[in-house]
Amino acid sequence: MSYTASELLAVSASRLLADGKIVFAGVGTPLLAASLARLTHAPHLTIVVEGGAIGLEAEPGRLPISTNEMRAGRRAVMLPSITQIFLYAQRGYFDYGFLGGAQIDPYGNINTSVIGPAERPRVRLPGSGGACDIACHCREIVIVTRHERRRFVERLDFVTSPGQVGAGDGRRRAGLLFGRVTAVVTDLALMDFDPATGRMRVVALQPGADLAQVREQTGFELAAAAEPDRLPAPSEQELALVRALDPARTFLG
Q1: How many CB atoms lie within 10 A of CB 174?
Q2: CA distance 176 to 166
Q3: H/E element holding 115?
């Protein structure tokens, strides 16, 4: 069964979410992945969105396009303010946070601010929003993005959201006492971080991808086993469910 890169990302990310946990999800691929996980292996996963909803159940075919619209609160168990949502994050209540980025470095630090010098940038990006708070306070941060050389760079033009920060215990030295980036999911591979060096490494390849292709699309040295594991392709059930969640392909492209 054929599938798009966006569908592959949503399915791969959903598989990382365990039942009974709490995920801080943005609209788009994160909400798709979290909703898919609830429909498959994690029926007791609690979804939280930034605009102020805890425990929402997204309606298939009517996924919210903003965290501040009424559909984002469908069947939610709580509708606190956005300030309260981030206070819960600071207290360590959220197990997972999803992030993307225009640039990602070997330590999982993310740039969503500017491309080029900060004084005279070539491109101005949306900025942090709640991303820096998510990166600092969620127990596990999962980065979900297309795998492109321009995104995976040795040095960021601007650090918007911290990952491992630097080598070894760089995150702890920066004052971030809990939480870490645990996974990077792309349309080519699944990656984690070496506990000794803090740098990104390949764990498994997506169907149809090879290690040479992954390294070609990465702008820094990427460690990997000689023969990385292979992720299973999306099942027919997973594809049917994710397409039912977004039949207009608003987020699946």
Answers
A1: 13
A2: 12
A3: strand 114-115
Residue of 117, 191, 189, 197 lying closest to 165 (CA atoms): 197
Q: C-alpha dihedral over 214, 217, 222, 224, to 10 degrees?
A: 0
Dihedrals phi, psi of 245, to nearest 5 degrees? -65, -35
> What residues contact 198, with CB distance under 8 A and at least 6 apart?
107, 164, 165, 166, 167, 168, 169, 170, 171
Place of tokens 């909400």: 31
Task: Work out whether the CA dihedral 16, 231, 156, 125 comes out positive or negative.
Answer: negative
In which residue are the tokens 């601007």 written?
A: 158
Full-model pTM: 0.94
Secondary structure (3-state) at 248 = coil
Q: What are the boundaries of each domain within the chain?
A: 5-245
Q: What is the pLDDT of residues 19-60, one digit of tens each?
A: 999 999 988 899 999 999 999 999 999 999 998 899 999 899
Q: Determine the CATH number of domain 5-245.
A: 3.40.1080.10
CA atoms within 13 A on the CB side of 203: 13
Extract the tokens encoding 145. 């993005």
What length is written for the chain? Answer: 253
Residue-wise pLDDT for 56-79, tens only, equals 998 999 999 888 888 988 999 999
- Degrees (nearest 5) of the Cα angle 214, 219, 169? 100
Measure the CA–CA gap between 157 and 154, rounded to whole angstroms. Answer: 10
In whole angstroms, give the CA distance from residue 138 to residue 126. Answer: 21
What residues are labeled active site?
Answer: 50
